UniProtKB/TrEMBL annotation:
A Pfam short name: Ppx-GppA
UniProt protein name: Ppx/GppA family phosphatase
Organism of this sequence: Ruegeria aquimaris
Domain Ppx/GppA phosphatase N-terminal: 44-359
Region (Disordered) location: 1-23
Amino acid sequence: MAPKRPTGAGAFPKAVESPAPNRPDPDALYAALDLGTNSCRMLIAQPKGSGFHVVDSFSKSVQLGAGLERTERLSRTSMDRTIQALRICQQKIKRNKVRRMRLVATEACRRAHNAREFIRDVKRETGLTLEIIQPEEEARLAVISCAPLVSTKTEQLLVVDIGGGSTELVWIDLKSVPRRDRPSAIMRLHAGFHPSESPFPAAKVVDWISVPLGVATLRDQFNDVEDDAARFALMSWYFEEQLADFVPYRNEPTRERFQIVGTSGTVTTVAASHLGLKRYDRTKVDGLRMTSEQIDKVIRTYLDLGPQGRRRDPRIGEDRHALIMSGSAILQALLRCWPTNRLSVADRGLREGLLYAQMSADGVLEDGPF
């Protein structure tokens, strides 16, 4: 039975708060798991006011999609490695006695011919039921997780989620929404990109696209190019070519009252490098605003370092150095199309969107938007 809805309604959730100090009531816990092409990530949280407290988490690079570009199948090694990580998630869910959860898989499982076999293996080995979600839902969940970072001055918004196997872009028009209601209007997109009649001011989704290229799949396509700078240039231009069908306001100037929100390991790594952080600090990165020029400067630094220099750079980290240039190529392509001085860095994404969606559906968030 879902917890009772607290009193109060009308505002959007606050940013995710720090872990809860006391052992929570299992009846109040929710789990969200995001199994992507490269990583397996999970959050366990309890509602707290209009946000939530994280009580447990898990994140590991599993490289589920390794070799997928060539074989169109998940390899036995990748599946075994991922199932080992999912066993840890299952143990955390069991230890915390979580009963409300949503466990989703994205691009690698959408594309692999043997994905159903893998899902059955996961169920048999761990007891977890994975759900393969479609690109539109993945994009919606990423968008609502970023709503608290949307400026009330923003009239045109581009949300970009750079994943391991795909990249989602959603362009939203907020001109008809009163300023103070704009973040709340973004949250209401949880109901769909083209919701039915609503008494609330509506955010208009002008266009959206899911490009089947992410940091892992783009890297794999150009692995045979030996020259570092040439490989980067080819990846960036190739990704831009995939945006031909995404044409919101192409002929209109975009800098005025335009904001990009970027959510991905690439964007947060670029932000950490810009800040000179040798130890990652989410509180300094999440919500940071960067200009196109600042981002280009960091990417040029990555190119100057070369593969060995990037491997040793503490700002990039061992888990990210092999993927940072393909991610940077995607980011640079986007900024060629839509230069901005208001890119907001989001250290949040699918897991947070899954949690907000579950809690909103159960009505357990104070001042919840739904």
